[in-house]
User: Fold these one by one.
Assistant:
Number 1:
Amino acid sequence: MAVVRLMNFSHILTPTSTSTTTTEEKPTLVEAVRKYKTNELIDFLRKEEDLVLDEDDLEIFRKQKVTGREFFKMTKQDFIENGMMWGPATRLVDFIKEIKEKKLRAYSSYKTQKDFEGVMRKFGIDGKNIKKIPSFSPETEKIEDNDEDLQYCITDIKRRMDNLGPAEGSSEALRCDYITTILHNSLHIAKRITKKRISLEPEFEVIDDKATGRVYITIKKVLDNLDEELICITEGKQSELAKGFMQNIMQLDSSYYTNKRKRIASEAFDDEFDYLYGIVSTAMDWHFIMYTPEKVYRVKDDYHVPLTENVLENDTELRRDVKKVMEVIVGLLKDRVNVDDSPAIKKARTEKYIKKRN
């Protein structure tokens, strides 16, 4: 089976695997960190409490666009010349040396489980029963049956079905193809309606038939200064739906603080309330999450897309169900890119969706 190259969204959630033949082999921490982009590196360093780095220290990495590859080449003098104090510069150099000498393995499943449990406790969520997550009802966006992007999406799905086969029981890569087809066309409709710049970025890692990985797709609002603000994260899962929910919530929690840190000081509000959307999908089943810093909610209704070879003969159900899913996705994106930046307005918006359902 061909190997598909994919990259993890965050080291916090799961270790990266460089092996295409076994789940036992994991990269060293050096190998894992070397692949980090700037924001991933900053998040990694922030998690290391012993480093005692403040936001000014971390901002140096962002300003200089330091990635994991450059990180291991930096000296104490490099850090100091770029504005870092002697203390944190010394701790960072010692940290780099410790990682290299001990050749630490990438994060273990035990630490990942602890992370899971911590986030779940924060929101009072039972990780084994997602039905206990309180519900919300988002505003969907009506899509006409003859919408050109809907028609293109259906055609593309049928072509993939004819060439690649059904999604159920398929590889991670194939299901990702179906997921991104629906997301791309939903995004195109949202951009057409809102006239806003929105980007979609798949973030993947190595997948094979023995080591099933995870699919992350981030959707971002492009700001006037060309910076990006995360507004939605999609988690692709083949099984263990409850775990997919937990992983998505962890990513949303991390992304919320990433967005918060990106706010320019002059634009910051006393109340930093914000909200993000999450999507958990097997390609056939679609679930939607609203994250707030206070609580997490899910859309209670079920959304299912029949991705079987039967659609090649009769696509009536496919059209109906894909349209329903896209109407939710477009509604979420339209809401999040159009909402006023005022925390009070954002909070009122989420409260309306919660009350509307309950």
Note: The chain has a mean pLDDT of 78.
Number 2:
Amino acid sequence: MAARPTRMLPKFRSALQKLTLLFFVWTIFEAHRSHYRITRAEREANARTILIEPTRVYIASLHWNNEEILRSEWNKAVLDLVKTFGANNVFVSVYESGSWDDSKGALRELDKKLEAMGVSRKIILDQETHKDLISHPSADEGWITTPDGGRMPRRIPYLSKLRNLSLQPLVELAENGTAFDQVLFLGDVVFTVSDILNLLKTNNGRYAAACSLDFSKPPKFYDTFALRDTQGHEHASQTWPYFRASRSRKAMINAQPVPVSSCWNGIVAMPASTFTGIRGLKFRGIPDELAMSHLEASECCLIHADNPAARTKGVFVNPTVRVGYSRKAYDAVHRNAVSNNNYSGSWLSLTEVYFGLWRNRFARWLTSPWFEEREVSKRIKQWMKGGEGREEKGGFCVVDEMQIVVHNGWKHL
């Protein structure tokens, strides 16, 4: 009887070897299938980049110390957009805030060219620098008492104010009967007309918001602060296929529009009606009292949490629209693009797909968002108990951070 386990051991080893081989073959097949679908999606997206019907577009953008990319890439790309949509179908709203490079000069050059083309616009060049702002401490909303007892402006309410100012002409035009179809929020990124046309056709044009993917140092995506999967989780891996939630991850693997709870990631398209009328939304930060619990949330995530259409029409990342914070970054995620924007293959190599799947898999197996999310949720509940009627719709946006404006940008506390 004692010999039975010894006789069973070779059978167990054989079964384990077969199972391992089967799993290895399956993962190779999965990588090849994903690579093929990504390649096909690139070609189909390229075929869709034709403007079929007139679209009225309101372009909103914030700039701070962006002279280099404005002069090298951004200004020209905006002018190309105007030529595509038609000068009468575009309004350009830019808010520049206290740059110490020559961003103002670059935007003045853009302003002159837009004027020559007959484009309606409002370009604000604000002289107030961050140093000016923090030199006048305030008891107003959007300021916080720091651990050393000082008063400092919070980064997110500050950015929310600027975004709302960039949308003010849209609201005023709507009140006077001038409507737009889409708001395009353009970050300080390299992009093309084809990128924009492709983005506008995300999910066949049905969305509450459609976002690109942004890259500063590929292959890692950049805007981790605003991106949340369908379950409200942060990314599992910063490289493809990024997501923890099955629904978001599978859509990315299959090169389909990716449903998410929130995104921003360089360029965002949203229906203009989102921001107009009595129920028009505004960007915001979490309340100061909640932020005092060492919590923060991106205004670019909270806008989706506040938007009822996000639950009905959906928020999507379009993986075929990839932008970069430099020409080098943009080219790195379009390396198979050839002349006239045709694609010879996937923007990811088969090796990147294979190892990307495994990195994401191990990240999901070995890490959990539960601990941080539980702590954040605990602090939000404590804050809600501290006052009647307190509520935070964007709990999934909130992270364990405190961010303030400083003279040379912003920092964590």
Note: The longest strand covers residues 315-324.
Number 3:
Amino acid sequence: MTGSGVSRPGATDAGDSTVRLRDVARLDREHGTPLGQRWWVTSVVVVVYIATMVAVIVLLIPVAGLDDEVERRVFGGFSVVTAAYTGLLAWLIWRNVARRVRIDRLAVTNGLVYSPREPLGGFAGTATDRPGNQMATDVVSSPSGVVDEGGDFTAATFRRGSGLHPRRAAFVQMRLDRATPHIVLLNRRSRVLGASGSRFVSGQRLRLEGDFDRTFTLLCPAGYERDALYIFTPDVMAVMLDVAPDCEIELVDGWLVAYVGRPWRLWRSRDFAAMLSLVHALGPKARSQTRRYRDDRAPIGIIGGVGRRLRMRPSAGALISLVAPVALGVVGVVSLFSP
């Protein structure tokens, strides 16, 4: 542990030790887990559901008019499938609660704070600015008022798309010492921002030096090109390729937000250490580059109106969601009055 109370990144076996029922009970008690989200409530619901299914099948089999031998085989097969299904559900329930306990252990070991769920709207970043009751999960953050070389940061997992099967992604946001213009570094290997519905108006692209342009696309507001290159220097981009080759970066509202195209698996000691390594490598570098930044177009500590946000355009999905209901309504009205 460092003097500030936050450890340096490094693997630990705290997340790999055995999880017991008392560990889960302690986690629920400390975090005030709602009754409906407790493992034993979920287990009771599953048991009642399966018992109801069994009762219905037991009542229906005699009605089918099968002979005794077929009836025994059908009931035996159903019993085997039900037992396997019950075992699978029990394993999934325990796996999920055990993962939360392991993340909490790793957070405590590293002097951090863990929260199973938090509203997504409370975080910085374009990809997390989503309508509806969206939640971030497996939230790990630096304790309030305690800052080490990694700085003030929060890591979490979130849904990056919409529809029936949205994919999950992750982010880590790190507080900067100064506010900066809204600058985005897209990554052809990740595309988290694009998949989350963030579309930026063309013409805001700024070419990077060397081979960095093959992987990354730098976007900045008009008139802030020199500012963007002042922050994203070749040595910063070299750090990006070293510790975050599959990340997208957004500077917004005094935060650096690094998006990862896959969910964090913070219950694994190795993945937890990798997240901390990203924070400790990228955070200090970003703060060093922005510590003396100021927008000459505005008072100290304030970003000019044009620089606060990149210009956005609606995605194709958003346009379709708006146009389709209107088109259907027009077709319906026309059909009512047509001869």
Note: The radius of gyration is 26 Å.
